[in-house]
Structure formats: C-alpha cells, structure tokens
Amino acid sequence: MAQTTSAAEPTRRDFLYIATGAVGAVGVAGVAWPFISSLAPDAQTVAAGAPVELDLTPIAEGQIVKLFWRGNLIFVRHRTAEEIQAARSAPLTALRDPQPDEARTKEGKAQWLVVYGNCTHLGCVPLGQQGEYKGWFCPCHGSIFDTSGRVRGGPAPINLPVPPYTFTSDTAIRIGAEA
Ligand code: FES
C-alpha cells in the first residue's frame, strides 16, 4: 500500500543514519539532504560516544548532510563560494554571538562547515538554505542562521555550536576528536 508523507514533515530520507563509527558511501540522491545508508546501529558504540568518521567526497557543493554523534544531530555542509563569501563578509558587529567564520571552520577548509543541528533556542531542527541569509531557518519560532551557522535573527541566543572534529585526510573528517 502506498504511503504518503506531508511535504512539511521530514521523511526518513532526510536523515543520515550512522551505524558504527564509520560511514560508507552517500547514496544516490538528487536533493539537498542526501540519504546515507548504513549498517545496523551499534548501540554500544553510539552510546559510548565513539568518534564518527565521514567521507566527504560524495557530498556535493551546496549540500548539507545530517548525522548523529553521541545522540546529537550534526550538520555537515559543503558550502559554495558564495556561501563562504557571505559568511566571511558579515561584520562582527552585526552578530548577536560574534564569531568570525574563520574560527568556526578549519584552516584551508572553508568549504566545510560542521555544526550541531539543533536550534539553540528550544532545540528544533532548522531547515537548510532557508531564511534571510540562506543558512538555516528554524520553523518553530523563526530563528535565522547564516551560512556559518551564526544566529542572525529570532529568539536563538547563540550560534549553532561547532563540535570537536578533525580532518583525517583532505576528504574525510572524524567527529568527536580534535587534531
Ligand atoms: S526552537 Fe528554533 S526558534 Fe525556537
């Protein structure tokens, strides 16, 4: 029997399921929220908060993927040149929680933004590439984030935080471990 899903509701394809500490290839997906297939979750590994490895090569420019680390939603965004420029040209004086974009990304890797994926107001999941700054828009109470994940409007008090992570190669990161 066919199932229908409201366009306003996230579908299973919106989420990236992490099985163990390692992530395989991104599935073929034509939308901005690619589904990444995985093996059966290893609950003990997840509960232990083991670092999560992510191969970045399948993530196209302009895409955002979601994954979970330590039970927290994480966004990994492959930013376009325009999105980087927008983030870096914003005056700090215009920011509620002033942080330069350079401090939120790794040196030489400005195209990659990794942030926690829950709104810093009350924890809803903001929608990517939406809102005045085309970063994220939180549909719950209207918080607006820019392409650096910094709050630019609405009730959210602080930026989307950056989790600890490190590049293990030019095209892979490990979330949960600093260099
Ligand atoms: S939870 Fe996002 S604006 Fe309230």
Automatic annotation (TrEMBL):
InterPro entries reported for this sequence: Rieske_2Fe-2S, Rieske_2Fe-2S_sf, Rieske_Fe-S_prot, Rieske_Fe-S_prot_C, TAT_signal, TAT_signal_bac_arc, Ubiq_cytC_Rdtase_Fe-S_su_TAT, Ubiquinol_cyt_c_Rdtase_Fe-S-su
Q: Membrane spanning segments where?
A: 15-36
Which PANTHER family does the record cross-reference, listed alphabetically? CYTOCHROME B-C1 COMPLEX SUBUNIT RIESKE, MITOCHONDRIAL
Q: Which gene encodes it?
A: petA
- This chain belongs to the protein called Ubiquinol-cytochrome c reductase iron-sulfur subunit
Q: State what this protein does.
A: Component of the ubiquinol-cytochrome c reductase complex (complex III or cytochrome b-c1 complex), which is a respiratory chain that generates an electrochemical potential coupled to ATP synthesis.
Gene source species = Salinarimonas soli
Q: State the EC number(s).
A: 7.1.1.8
- Name the major location: membrane
